Amino acid sequence: MKLILLKSATLIAAALAIGAPAQAAEPLIDLYKTLHANPELSHMESETSKMLGAELETLGFDVTYEFGSTGTVAVFKNGDGPTVLIRADMDALPVTEATGASYASTKIMEDHNGNMQPVMHACGHDIHMTVFMGTARDLIARKAEWSGTLVMILQPAEELGQGARAMIGAGLFDKFPRPDYNLALHTNSAMPAGTVGYTPGYALANVDSVDITVRGIGGHGAYPNTTKDPIVLAAQLIQGFQTIVSREISPTQPAVVTVGSIHGGTKHNIIGDEVKMQLTLRSYSPEVRQQTLAAIRRMADGMGRAYGLPEDKLPIVIHQDEFTPAAFNNPALSERAANLIAGAIGEKNVIKVDPVMGGEDFGEFGQVEPKIPSFIYWLGAVAPADYAAAKASGATLPSLHSPTFLPDAAPTIDTGVKAMSASALGLFNGQG
Ligand SMILES: [Zn+2]
Ligand SMILES: [Zn+2]
């Protein structure tokens, strides 16, 4: 563990020495490769945060570390005007990288449970941070062109849906200037580099995790009449859950119920006494979210009773505290920012796209009353040639979280910096 940390600290120190931000900043592509090779798991992004914070300090930001877990808040006051918040997330995933890149991660890190895990920036958060730093450099270099307050935050633990809440809980909107606008972007593994996608209104979904323990009365597989088989009840529950979206929720309202994991039993001829299931639920509106959760509880309870289970053996439904609220893009801000981005990268490269049922805890920053208009958009990350080839052949491109997901870094970062700088500048100057 120590050795690994030392190795990453040395690499980072080397990168800083090359970068020497006080004189000439390290080229963004080199910064990206350093970040990519040195990923850190959720809530453990300390080296990343220190490295980027050091450059933000050099640029003249007031920097606060360890704010809401390993979060970093950097504030640059540049006269009167609006306050614009730009957020990047820092955490990587427990994935073994298989991209074959010369700067691929080989890192192994101890997780919170004491298990050694491979670590990879498989969700593109290294791109987000590089674009973030490029935007910081650009906006400071052009500080004569805008006035207002720039708040730049590096958020931990997005992958757990916990980092945004941790920073808000620590007082992000009380202890620092309260933003008039929140901005963020996310890499997109299905759009070509050079493009930006945006969705006014709900863009990403509410995400809920539910754990169910189906209990029974175990016994011999040859004498089922003396048992209450939890595997059969679990099967009925899974079938029952399929009717929540198809028969209970309005067909015009998006929702997903997925049973992603089911474990029970040990051997052919033993009826066990427990089955465990894990579900992910997706929705946009708070009403559909509550309706789905209530239906799962009702079915677990009602089907358990119908099966003849005693009161003390009914299924246990636990709604995990991992809720990520839907990301709602303020429609007026979305159109305004999309215009500003089009001015920087060309109108044909800014594409309105459908919402998705993925989750992103950036949505949290727009939920705190009084609600701050917020906007998160997609940054195309696929090499244009790969994109064209996949389109022609119908092949599927590696998705986010895949061990082979590798952004076409240079054009992706270049487009991201242009887009983020243009939207922030325009908002400071009342344009768009
Ligand atoms: Zn992710
Ligand atoms: Zn992500």
What does this structure look like?
It is a single chain. The protein has about 425 residues and is an alpha+beta fold. It folds into 2 domains: about 10-205 and about 325-430, Aminopeptidase, CATH 3.40.630.10; about 205-320, Alpha-Beta Plaits. It is built from 11 helices and 18 strands. It has helices at about 1-20, 30-35, 45-60, 125-140, 165-170, 170-175, 230-250, 285-305, 330-345, 385-395, 410-430, and strands at about 60-65, 70-80, 85-90, 110, 115-120, 150-155, 180-190, 195-200, 200-205, 205-215, 220, 255-265, 270, 275-285, 315-320, 325-330, 350, 375-380. The strands form 5 sheets. The chain has an 8-stranded mixed sheet with strand order 1-2-6-3-7-18-8-17, with helices on both faces. Strands 12-14-10-15 form a 4-stranded antiparallel sheet, with helices on one face. Strand 1 (about 60-65) and strand 2 form a beta hairpin. The chain is elongated. The termini are far apart. Mean pLDDT is about 95; it is low at about 1-25. Bound molecules: zinc ion (ZN) (2 copies). One zinc ion (ZN) binds near residues 159 and 400.
